[in-house]
Structure formats: C-alpha cells, structure tokens
C-alpha cells in the first residue's frame, strides 16, 4: 500500500506555554552558542580584555543572534509542511500551530529590522555587508540549496565563516586565513556529522530532500576527512612561525589534545544518540564534551593572555618570630 504524503495537521489541544513562549522557542536561543565564532577574532587578536573592543564584539554577537533567530524563523516557515511529518520537528511552534503562520511572518520582519538597523548604526559597512550576505545565503539555503547534497553542508560552513568575518569587521581586525580555514573545516565536519545522524532516522527522506542522495559510507568518509583536516590545520596554525611570533610563545600546540578529543567525542555522539533531534544540540548537553571545551578555552586564555597568579593573589607569608 502506498503511504500517504499528506502532512499531518497541527497538534490539537491548548498550546503549552502560549504564543510568547512559542516565539522565543522559534528563534532557538540554545543555538546562539554558534555565534561565539563572532568573538573569535577578538580573542585571538589578544583584545578580549580591552573594554571598548569587547563591547563592540558583544554587540556584533547580539546582532548575529537576532539575525540567526530570523533565519530559524524563516526556515520554520519554509519547512512547516515537512516539519509536520517529523516525529520531533512537528512539535516546533509554527508546525504545531502554537505560533500562527501570519504572526511568524510579522515576527520575522521585526527581527530583520532590528538586526540590520543595529548593523548599520553600530558598525562599518563591511559588517553590514557581511550580515546581509549571511542572511541572503540562508534565504538561498532555505529555499533551494538545502536540497542539494554537499552544497547544503557547504552553505552551513559558509555561515560560520561569515560570522568570523563579521567579528573581524566589528573590531577592525584582519582575520588570518588559518582562522578562516579552521572555521570552515570544523563547520563542514559538524555539518556532515549532522547529516550522518539524520540519515540514520527512518523519516530521513521525508524530512530533508538532500538526504536521499547521501549514503552512510560516504558521510563516514567525509567525517574522517574533514575531522583529520581540521586537526591538521589547527596544529599547523599553532606551530606556524607567525603565530608563535604574534603570541610570543611556543606553547599554543598544547591546546591540540582538546581539539582532538572534541572531534572524537562528537563522532561518538553522532553514532550514540540516533533518536535525538540534532547531534549539535546533544553535544552541548554532553558533560564530557562541555568540560573538554571549557578546558580548551581555559588553556587558550592562559597561553594567549599569559594569565598567571600574581603575587597579590597569594596569602601574605607569616611574619618570622
């Protein structure tokens, strides 16, 4: 018997949490952690403790949070019918009917107005152009490019690269090609991991058209290649003579074990949590992954900013009798 392709109607019953909660959930605040890539140029330019630059970087982070919220809203509007046949995504506010489609469209317009107004008023034209490019890329992704295998993941990776570029424009810092390369490769790795997780689910073909052209073996190879290239590029960056001269240290390579562990742990999450909605969400709930990420950040700060205990932070010695 042929299976019906008619979408399921929105879930009946009173919406839990109301419209306001639904709007907040639609913009995915838990996903805004991806926008920390906007802060990468600030940290690796050794400017993290300079107040004015820190405020500009945080403002840029806020702009990208609002803009990414608009992108998620747009994506849910475009995918509303497909989401209604997905066992997890059918619970999303727009797909479930908690947030009316017309209200979601108005909300999208407001988010875009806030994001682009902030970008235009607070930053140079380079940042505004980058923010606009980020949104145009995501519109193309939502409407067409996400249906094309491998191009879809490349679009995701480009979004991360644009975040880094925007962070550089926000504080007037030229971003190194190593940072662009590491960002692109890491994002490709995460994107292929997400696709590998999705095709393991029974509803994969109905939920995302591009998944029909992927294979488990092909994505396994893509994961290995991009993971290995991410590690190799990061190691090359830490050992590069210009890097060592800029940071005045040869110790940045000591952060490599955390990068390696993070890559391996993400693969374990992809394979070990097949029923979760997204491995990128699952990794942020994984205690081992988060502890490893915190350890990497701590070691980077210690090495890059030469954070050491000062004499005043130690208890005064007891006076001799």
How is this structure best summarized?
This protein has helices at 18-26, 40-44, 51-78, 80-83, 93-96, 101-122, 125-143, 151-171, 177-199, 204-207, 216-239, 241-247, 256-272, 279-283, 287-304.
Structure explained in plain terms:
The chain folds into two domains: 19-175, UbiA prenyltransferase (Tetracycline Repressor, domain 2); 176-306. With 321 residues, it is mostly helical. The chain is built from 15 helices and no strands. The model is unreliable at 1-14 and 309-321 (pLDDT under 50).
Low-confidence stretches: 1-14, 309-321
Total domain count? 2
What is the mean predicted local confidence, pLDDT? 85
Named at the architecture level, the CATH assignment of the largest domain is: Orthogonal Bundle
Give helix % range.
55-70%
N-to-C SSE string, H for helix and E for strand: HHHHHHHHHHHHHHH
Percentage beta strand: under 5%
- Number of helical elements: 15
End-to-end distance: 95 Å
Oligomeric form of this entry? Answer: single chain
CATH superfamily of the largest domain: UbiA prenyltransferase
Largest sheet: none
General form: globular
- CATH class of the largest domain reads Mainly Alpha
